[in-house]
Fold this sequence. Notes:
Radius of gyration: 21 Å
Helix content: 40-55%
Strand content: 15-25%
Shape: globular
Strand order of the largest sheet: 3-2-1-4-5-6-7
Amino acid sequence: MIYYIAHWDWILKNSRSDIVKELKNDFDITGITPLENHKLEIKNDYFQTINWNYKRKKLLDIKGIFNLRKLIKTFNNEDIIHIFTLKSLIIFLIGSLFTEKKGTVIASITGLGYLFAKSKLANILKLLLKPLIIFQINRKVDVVIFQNSDNRRLFLEFSNFKNRVSMIPGSGLNLNNISVKKSFNDPLKVIFVSRLLNEKGFAEYCEIANLLKEDSSFKFYIAGDRDKGNKSSISDDQFKNMKQSDHLNYLGEIDVLSELHNYDVLISPTHHEGFSRIILESAYIGLFIIANNIAGTREVLLNMNSGKLVNDNNVKEYINHLKNVKFEIKELDTKTNRELIKINYSIESISGKIKEIYDDYI
Length: 362
């Protein structure tokens, strides 16, 4: 049996469900996650599901860790346990303390997240968790999969991980039923699509929109929902001010695959990223992209003619690119971008790379 473990059911739904469907003829995959907002989809997509009672909005849910510990003890040596996200991995390492290792354990680091953010609390957490991670990780984890080389370097230095390392860029895009752009709007529709987190660049985007609020060439939109279980979630005041703004149009969550083509420019001022899914989706759909120059965004934009990178998340640089975007749009080579994405980042491509790893341990 293969077990997928995540501390949030959205993680096992978002792209992981497509991987499960792609691999279902080869493997039976069971999802272990708190069944919250995506209960029905996960139950339909996975071979079976186990409701892991973990309260993700807590910094650390001790009872939830013991719930996972009980599940860990039921694994067999023939099983593959695939853990998604750094937070889920840390919870697994705590829950498996002083237990017998069973099965092959694979961890996908989809981004370094809040633990590597530049904040006092993050630094304290790193200080507290580092000894545990170093003590456990080589004992309990066989393979770590990274999405970009910077995350690999930082995590390996931090954890002293010595076992197998693999690079798989992204979680795979399902290219079926994507609505692509056919024309651009006038004025241009600029959009920010993300969970509403400060570490995703929410404040920077609002500043850009505010500085250009008198420019009739643009309309600014925000799509996404708050994540109150995340320490970087925007405050109540930030959320209220955004909804009351006369120059920001709040859309809530959108269906990216069917709605994103209605917009023209994606701005992604994210502070850190594993491998940006929304940038891949935007490049395939045909939007012009302006993104912070970091690992997880630059790989896409340097490999494809789909937009511009901004150094150090400089707001003035975003604005300069926006003012020139009507000329830059003419240089987009969306057809070539789509072919590159299909070959390198599609669900079929990513699932094939994951299957190769599973096959080595079965």
